Amino acid sequence: MTLQHADTSNDESKTRLRLWLRLLKLSSGIEGEIRRKLRDEHDSTLPRFDVMAALMRHPEGLKMSDLSGYLKVSNGNVTGIVDRLTEDGLAVRVAVPGDRRASLARMTPKGIQTFEDLAAHHEDWVNGLLDGLSNHECHTLIDLLEKAMLNKDNSDEHG
Amino acid sequence: MTLQHADTSNDESKTRLRLWLRLLKLSSGIEGEIRRKLRDEHDSTLPRFDVMAALMRHPEGLKMSDLSGYLKVSNGNVTGIVDRLTEDGLAVRVAVPGDRRASLARMTPKGIQTFEDLAAHHEDWVNGLLDGLSNHECHTLIDLLEKAMLNKDNSDEHG
């Protein structure tokens, strides 16, 4: 009477369900490991890392509302994270010409250096966590995940 | 200056990083879709679904502490969810013989029926979201994800 025994399922449907459970387990496992290493080894968090990554992609600066849109988290949380980054000298807020109430967040040189160091660690962690797979297997997985994703983008058809 | 440009990376390391980003994107996308459908179509939530699934796997009943251990969420949250399930007649709390302070949560027949209905929908959603993949492709993915997972379980070696 577990998920695998729903009356309506056939073998292919059960296989896709199994695939989803494996996908979820692996990605939760890796994400948990990254959160743990950010916390224990760098006194940081995944949302903070994600905010820095978004700011790195926008050297021209980002409004809080755009930033929270990219990250799909609340404005309040993003503002708190940017405040902390600013206190730590990793980001600055600059005025938006012609809009007194808005400000843009931008990385400082120290922030850029800090992020690049963190990103190199992040890449090492991911590389270590996935090193049971050959390069060829990684490419096979990427192709299949992208194929699955294409369909996901059209998921309204299955609504 | 994005993640892909860390100085230390070589091609294989970049491929694994790309794999991780695809994995994260697909699993977040599917999870978001499942959360949305549970909320909009069944007035439910993923933590509630997960609690019911755990209780279904333990017809003998589960203590709150065991339940929160399985789900890796706080006791308080699990207790709140079980309270709601109990109010809705989907679960009951029964005394533990010989331990006055502990109680076990168990599904009721109505709860079992409700969960089986939800689980069948859940399987249909997953099946629809992943139906861009052939059965053979799904098996290839499962094999590769399990291979990656095996390594993940030994991740302390990479600490």
Description of the structure:
Chain A is mostly helical. Chain A has a single domain, classed as Winged helix-like DNA-binding domain superfamily/Winged helix DNA-binding domain (Arc Repressor Mutant, subunit A). Helices cover 65% and strands 11% of the residues of chain A. Chain A has helices spanning 11-42, 46-56, 64-71, 75-87, 109-129, 135-153, and strands at residues 62-63, 91-96, 99-107. A three-stranded antiparallel β-sheet of chain A has the order 1-3-2. In chain A, helix 3 packs across helix 4. The two termini of chain A are 26 Å apart. The interface between A and B is large, with 66 and 66 residues.
Classified by CATH, the class of chain A is Mainly Alpha
Low-confidence spans of chain A = 1-8, 154-159
* Class from helix and strand fractions of chain A: mainly alpha
* SSE order of chain A, one letter for each helix or strand: HHEHHEEHH
Number of helices of chain A: 6
Tell me the domain tally of chain A.
Answer: 1
Largest Cβ-defined interface: A-B, 66 and 66 residues
The percentage helix of chain A is 55-70%
Mean pLDDT of chain A: 87
Using only C-alpha atoms, the radius of gyration of chain A works out to: 20 Å
Major β-sheet profile of chain A: 3 strands, antiparallel
CATH superfamily of chain A: Winged helix-like DNA-binding domain superfamily/Winged helix DNA-binding domain
**What is the number of beta strands of chain A?**
3
Oligomer: homodimer
CATH architecture level-2 label of chain A: Orthogonal Bundle
End-to-end C-alpha gap of chain A = 26 Å
Shape of chain A: elongated
Topology-level CATH name of chain A:
Arc Repressor Mutant, subunit A
Strand order of the largest sheet of chain A: 1-3-2
Report the sheet-strand fraction of chain A: 5-15%
